[in-house]
Amino acid sequence: EVQLVESGGGLVQPGGSLRLSCAASGFTFSSYAMSWVRQAPGKGLEWVSVINSGGGSTRYADSVNGRFTIAGDNAKNTVYLQMNSLKPEDTAVYYCNARRYQYNYWGTGTQVTVSS
Question: Which of 32, 51, 53, 73 has its CA 20 to 30 A from that of 101?
Answer without folding.
Answer: 73
